[in-house]
Amino acid sequence: RKEVEQDPGPFNVPEGATVAFNCTYSNSASQSFFWYRQDCRKEPKLLMSVYSSGNEDGRFTAQLNRASQYISLLIRDSKLSDSATYLCVVNDFSGGYQKVTFGTGTKLQVIP
Amino acid sequence: NAGVTQTPKFQVLKTGQSMTLQCAQDMNHEYMSWYRQDPGMGLRLIHYSVGAGITDQGEVPNGYNVSRSTTEDFPLRLLSAAPSQTSVYFCASSYLGRGSTSISYNSPLHFGNGTRLTVT
Prior knowledge:
A: 112 residues, six-stranded mixed sheet, five-stranded antiparallel sheet, 58% strand, B: 120 residues, seven-stranded mixed sheet, four-stranded antiparallel sheet, 11 strands, 47% strand, globular
């Protein structure tokens, strides 16, 4: 089993739709979680951290389910500019220092 | 703020040539790392460093060397370029997360703009 798994998509959704991505992780001791956004041929950029109680930033909501070992990202009222690949990132701490593991990403295409 | 700066942006090498990809950050981050990303694939960790003088191998270290003589700089050396090393390379840095069962630090990575390397 991969350490961090994501559905590669693509998810093709119309403008204004709500779309959700899930990401599962294998290490139950993982402690930090993030969602990144990557545009074609560009560097990944932090979208939001994921907190235990869930958190929201505008149209974006992130949730963490430790019991089932997954995190989710919900995008409401999708915009054309949301088209990108969304990367799930999990931080473990081995030997006292962080180990960062990326999922392979979920591609989102918002269509007019 | 400059953040993480990578040079060059583009590079073409012939098989067997060597070169160094430069990475510098001005955020006083202890943790620095190098990734490669191949078309349609995820990021794969090449090498990382948790501080000056300390480096370690990631998932795909063969064919690459690193050193960390200062906090700011983390160059990646290709010893003898091969076509299989054609890729996009990203440098990333963060504060050093330290964890135990009860304490963790949320420290996201900051990425450079990438270096697009072609080996012919």
